[in-house]
Amino acid sequence: MRLIMIGFGNLGRAFGRSLLEKKEFLLTNYGLTPSVVAAVDEYGAAVDEGGLDVKKLLKTAEKANTVADYPARGKKGRSALEVIEEVEADLVFELTPTNIKNGEPGLTHIKKAMMAGRHVITSNKGPLVVAFRELDRLAKQKGVEFRYSGSVGGAVPVIGLAKKMLAGNMVHAIRGVLNGTTNYILTRMSKEGAPFDVVLREAQELGIAEKDPTLDIEGTDTACKITILANAVLGISAKLKDVKVVGIRRIRPEAIRLAQEAGYAVKLIGVAKRDSLEVGPKLVPVGHPLAVGGTLNAVTFETDLAREVTITGFGAGPRETSSALLGDLIDIHTALGD
Ligand code: HSE
Predict the structure, then answer these.
(1) Inter-residue contact 70 to 57 (CB < 8 Å)
(2) Atom number, ligand 1, closest to the C-alpha of residue 181
């Protein structure tokens, strides 16, 4: 399968490394031989329709900080849109940073890729919170596959669990700890009574916080994930502005300590129901499946047949998110019967 990678930052590179690491595994288990025919970043592109050498691509990106320096096949100033339109490929990975205001540049990349008849995989929340329905419709209209598992829960297969294994259920509500940064901050504050600003810095050092960490702290990142789940699982045409959001900035170590003494943990919980979407700090009994610590995520589906199903794991990080991207790639390969 010929792949175009748009965005070759931390995530793109981690995914490139996963492709190398899993080369034999993909061939043996799925008969899948991915070939990266183009990689694009903000400075330019590397293109080889016969397949780029991913090892060389990673080395170039790490040394020169752009794929445009790839020997002989790299070109500064070659844009993602040019590559999507001009390079023969089966599937586009859209891995540029999230922009929740207008979804760009990811939104245009995804639309162009679909219009050109290419399948799309993304973990970029921006295009999904701005135009989920539009993209879903366009994919159907153009007869292309569209997957976005990595956008919610990182490595935790939240969307796959709901859409596949729970497909026979009516999902009444989704509740979750969907942001690793705030969960880390709340956990550290509860364990050592550490001050907010100190633990926020620690979370940033872990490399899981958004570039602008106010998006984590103020609950916006969780609201993005609730918007995506509302669309993908509950079938609601929701946008980010439909979510009522309260963040964790005002929570004091003292409040967390008092909650703890009463047997509760303070968690930033996102809730999606058919009639309401909200994010805010909530008291969760210690020992409850959603009372996960550190950078973990956890999501509970409330359903008719299965009753409650909770899934937990690592919701952030490039290597963890690569797990979701690779899962989506295998899923599309299988869906196409290749
Ligand atoms: N900033 C996010 C988090 C990254 O902390 O969970 C994953 O979306």
Answers:
(1) yes
(2) 5
Q: Is 225 a catalytic site residue? A: yes
Q: Is 47 exposed, middle or buried (0-12, 13-18, 19+ CB in 10 A)?
A: buried
Residue 215 Cβ contacting ligand 1 at under 6 Å? no
Q: How many CB atoms lie within 10 A of CB 195?
A: 12
Return per-residue pLDDT of the chain as tens, 338 residues.
999 999 999 999 999 999 999 999 999 999 999 999 999 999 999 999 999 999 999 999 999 999 999 999 999 999 999 999 999 999 999 999 999 999 999 999 999 999 999 999 999 999 999 999 999 999 999 999 999 999 999 999 999 999 999 999 999 999 999 999 999 999 999 988 788 888 999 989 988 999 899 999 999 999 999 999 999 999 999 999 999 999 999 998 889 999 999 999 999 999 999 999 999 999 999 999 999 999 999 999 999 999 999 999 999 999 999 999 999 999 999 999 97
- Ligand 1 test: best mutation among 152, 186, 210, 314, most atoms within 8 Å of CB? 210
Q: Cα–Cα distances in Å, from 188 out to 213, 246, 266? A: 17, 20, 11
* Domains observed in the chain: 2-155+318-336 (3.40.50.720), 160-314 (3.30.360.10)
Among 22, 111, 225, 267, the one annotated catalytic: 225
Is pTM beyond 0.85? Reply is: yes
DSSP string, 77-119: T--HHHHHHHS--SEEEE-PPP-TTT-TTHHHHHHHHHHTT-E
